Amino acid sequence: MPAPQRKHRRGGFSHRCFPTPQTAMTPQPAGPPDGGWGWVVAAAAFAINGLSYGLLRSLGLAFPDLAEHFDRSAQDTAWISALALAVQQAASPVGSALSTRWGARPVVMVGGVLASLGFVFSAFALSLLHLYLGLGLLAGSGWALVFAPALGTLSRYFSRRRVLAVGLALTGNGVFSLLLAPALQLLLDTFGWRGALLLLGAITLHLTPCGALLLPLALPGDPPAPPRSPLATLGLGLFTRRAFSIFALGTALVGGGYFVPYVHLAPHALDRGLGGYGAALVVAVAAMGDAGARLVCGCLADQGWVPLPRLLAVFGALTGLGLWVVGLVPVVGGEESWGGPLLAAAVAYGLSAGSYAPLVFGVLPGLVGIGGVVQATGLVMMLMSLGGLLGPPLSGFLRDETGDFTASFLVSGSLILSGSFIYIGLPRALPSCGPASPPATPPPERGELLPAPQAVLLSPGGPGSTLDTTC
Amino acid sequence: MRALPGLLGARAPTPRLLLLVWCLVAAARPSSADGSAPEHSSMPIEKNITLERPSDVNLTCQFTTSGDLNAVNVTWKKVGEQLENNYLVSATGSTLYTQYRFTIINSKQMGSYSCFFREEKERRGTFNFKVPELHGKNKPLISYVGDSTVLTCKCQNCFPLNWTWYRSNGSVKVPVGVQMNKYVINGTYANETKLKITQLLEEDGGSYWCHALFQLGESEEHIELVVLSYLVPLKPFLAIVAEVVLVVATILLCEKYTQKKKKHSDEGKEFEQIEQLKSDDSNGIENNVPRHRKNESLGQ
């Protein structure tokens, strides 16, 4: 009888015969590719990070020209970048909500156009207000639409090497600001600030092709259809998850102290007696330590020797301690000295802060599942922005009250330490499977943190967090 | 940056400032027997003094040597001419002091004053009196047609009597008059001046000079203004935008192309499978029975 033979022959595709061609032809989505097109996405995220944060950092070069032209003080022009940063971070959930609804690709492409328009608009500014609107509001909103979706998409493309990929993307910040600073100075010298802003608009437009590279990826565990209601796309439902709420609280606290060195490390070095070049050296070594640590931590964290939440708590604590040391370093002698103790403290701080950064994003899929990463990224950005808005002014206030930055750095370090302490409450082992959660939230991805046997080995040793359930 | 000799007549000498300036000149020790003198090379010693108002001045030089102080010839000169009177010479131990007192009233008395100590070699110390220098921008100021711009000149700790602005076409300097709606000259503080030019045209570009008038002379500074038209940055802008559009189009087209390829290869496979099934079907004796069996096999 030919039937068994037929069975055999048709065993592989018998289910395709009768169902409709579309669903018949669609294969089951595979897991994260962990490479391949993922590296292209990493490169795109690298450029996106650089063209948003990196560009914002070097924008300060144009401010003296702007202050002179509009006859305003340096403080007034500094509000431009403060506003852009605030809008970019606070509006991040909007970006992730839109990309949850329509996919990351169109959102990032539109964000690039928006940011570019902001620069073009500000090139024709007739007052500082126009610059606040163009650079602060428009460009900031454009950048809000690009960062979280790009990073979220990147996280979806990797599992075993996720922290490395994220760390790689986050170094775009430093690299681009290093390259853009002299380029921007050249533009200012050749075209004046108006021409420079116009051409920066063209450069910013490169966010759009980067967005075009963010191909959507279908993963197991994705909801079958994107949520429709605005609130659902925002992902506020993620806060009902205990792990994410703990993480959110910890991150908000860390955010209060994390951005203080960005603003106050150089003035602190100057206060401690270093000359201009000495202070610049301190900032430079901190930045280099930060950039290097992002990559190294990415490499090491993905090995899986230590669970990511634990690494997060450790490096967060180290960052806080680093800030304490930076604040407590004794007065350095004279303008000529190269400031040994402060340099060492700055390097220590830079290494810890650089290791902390990719972990913040790398730990998200373990907390909310791969399907909710984009929304979670947006919410995390917003939380850090709260701290970023309050932290530096508080630090400045303390400086004015006490006369030096010791109190500021102590308080910032304490905020980071308390946030890291809260991180200890995060689940250490694999996230719980099959939670009693609404059907919209996808089940967490399996096995991206650790293979199970290793988790069993490590958890008895850790300071017992029995808050979570394991499978 | 240049201090020019002024044309002011002498004012009644009301010295408001007594200036005491020291100059230290160290000499080599002449050797003993063999005649070749191991000379320390002493660079000519100079001191720059900034002065803007009439003042009493007291210049002092001291000279240390191991030789005979009486053999040293001491003179004061201003720009080559020997000054006859008003200087004292005294000695203490191995050091010779000389003092020159005078009053600077107008710009003719500004310049370089030198004290000379002649032994075997002549040693000199020089005092340079100058009016305050002006600071402007080292880089050209870039602006655009239709825009307005502000040219600033300032000096540290100085109070000029008057500020003026000039334009230069080639070597001719033309004063900038205060035309309504075009040029506005003002300064918030006494030590700075600002020239605001509105409704810029391309012809407004060029060299501008700010002049500060002091009682003891003048100072001026050069600022370069460049006026560009909007086409200048517009061309690179459009070029970059075109490149971006090209890259995006390439990415999207490449993706569509690879998708079509996939679809074709998938359709090809589908076609093959259907062909095979059809051939299976035709192999069967009856249509219904094999299908039944297929259904059963499907049900597993």
TrEMBL record, chain A:
Compositional bias ranges of the Low complexity kind: 19-28
GO MF annotations in UniProt: monocarboxylic acid transmembrane transporter activity; symporter activity
Record field: catalytic activity: pyruvate(out) + H(+)(out) = pyruvate(in) + H(+)(in)
GO biological process: lipid metabolic process
Chief location of this protein within or outside the cell: membrane
Superkingdom per UniProt: Eukaryota
Record's protein name: Monocarboxylate transporter 11
Native organism: Pongo abelii (Sumatran orangutan)
Gene coding for it: SLC16A11
